[in-house]
Design a protein that fits this description.
Helix content is about 75%, strand content about 0%. The protein is built from ten helices and no strands. The radius of gyration is 19 Å and the shape is globular.
């Protein structure tokens, strides 16, 4: 039986954009239904949201991205990167690059006097009250589904069957920008976007190099764990003053 060839590259890019549009619509509809059923006042104040809202938002976002994914694969006749076994060397390389990136931006922002801010929409007291759940969500759940969507699905669809390195580079840049864009939370988060773009480049590279999602997932989990520990430490220091 002859396998069908993937659709032309331009059609795959259009299909990815349509997929993202569908995902956004599903997320918005689910969010409206949630606020209608539960009540906005029980989930968020004027400027922040409680931890229950964070969990609901994560589940809604996952559903929005994952439900239309089979349709994208079916239409494009492309393949996605999977959680296939990866070499320990690739995982160590990914984690080492992430650690080096964090050190670089920490030094750079220290010299510039810039403090990157993210997750400002979450009530910090809520995070402190649910430390274990916060770590589970950010270190296990988020890296797994985000890497499957952006590196596994989108990047995989766009590089299936390609033999030209410029196509791989363009697909990587495309997915990096998308990944960075979904982490935009408002003007306060602009300083956090360059490091996010840099780590996205690392995730793209190690996924393409290894052919597996595990190096990117492990590096993503490491990055989020370091961020969570730093957040807890900063909160503890500020509350002892």
């Amino acid at each position: 039986m002859t396998l069908a060839l993937p659709r032309p590259l331009w059609q795959r890019y259009v299909a990815v954009l349509v997929y993202l549009l569908i995902a956004m619509v599903l997320i918005q509809i689910a969010g409206i239904l949630l606020f209608t059923a539960v009540g906005k006042g029980q989930l968020a104040s004027e400027n922040t949201m409680n931890f229950r809202m964070v969990i609901y938002s994560m589940v809604i976002q996952m559903m929005g991205f994952l439900l239309p994914a089979p349709l994208l694969l079916r239409f494009t006749r492309a393949q996605n990167y999977t959680f296939s076994p990866a070499r320990a060397a690739d995982i160590l390389l990914a984690c080492g690059l992430i650690f080096a990136s964090l050190i670089f931006f920490n030094i750079l922002y220290g010299l510039l006097g810039v403090e990157p801010k993210q997750l400002a929409f979450i009530d910090q007291n809520e995070i402190q009250q649910h430390k274990s759940a916060f770590v589970a969500v950010t270190v296990i759940l988020a890296p797994g589904y985000e890497e499957w969507v952006f590196r596994g699905l989108l990047f995989g669809v766009l590089v299936t069957g390609t033999e030209k390195i410029r196509h791989v580079i363009f697909a990587a840049l495309f997915c990096m920008v998308l990944f960075t864009a979904i982490h935009y939370e408002g003007a306060h988060s602009l300083t956090a976007l360059p490091p996010i773009l840099a780590i996205a480049a690392i995730f793209q590279f190690v996924t393409w190099r290894s052919g597996s999602l595990w190096p990117a997932v492990c590096a993503h989990a490491l990055q989020n764990l370091i961020y969570a520990v730093a957040m807890f430490a900063r909160y503890a220091v500020e509350n002892t003053k």
